[in-house]
Amino acid sequence: MQQQELPNLNYGLNVKTLSVAMKPSIVPAILDHYLRKPLDQDYIVGTLLGTIDGQKVNVSNSFGVPLTYHKDKDGEGEFHVDMEFQAKMLKFYSNVNPNEGLVGMYISSVVFDALTTAAVGHYHSLFNKEEKSKNALLPSPVILMIDPKLSKSHMPLKVYYTANTFLKDLPMFCELRHEFEMEEVDETGLDILYYG
What would you report as the CA-atom Rg of the chain, rounded to the nearest whole angstrom? Predict the structure, then answer.
């Protein structure tokens, strides 16, 4: 019996094969942002900065961004990011280290719910604007999803990239390989945090 070749379901989609390398200081900065958030706020979002080396995204810096999320009586809500703060911080970081650029975002969520999709939509529009000024190093943001609550006795961490941008109501994401650029002395504590 002759096997038939399966059709290419990704026909027409060109997804850049990327991998992500992060400095170990990124995660403590995100945890600190989460601990300092207002008590009535469930999520945090922030910006990732770094460099691109071929197909490898090197995430070396991050900063938190103030956000508000207002729910109406039907449970629907609107997501607002402090754009002025974000613009000031991007300008500050570009002055401090001109080699770093905008590479992505982080969010304290492990599922693609309404808020996560709204946050990703915001960062897509930010990337479209910043790409023209050459501050964004990728056409779409790398999305770091993290659970700072340690709800499963370890910290789930996933990295995604948008596979398409033409379906605004139904974005498609692909998971990226990621690693931490650690010295041997860093590995012991971070292994416990990430893997339990």
Answer: 18
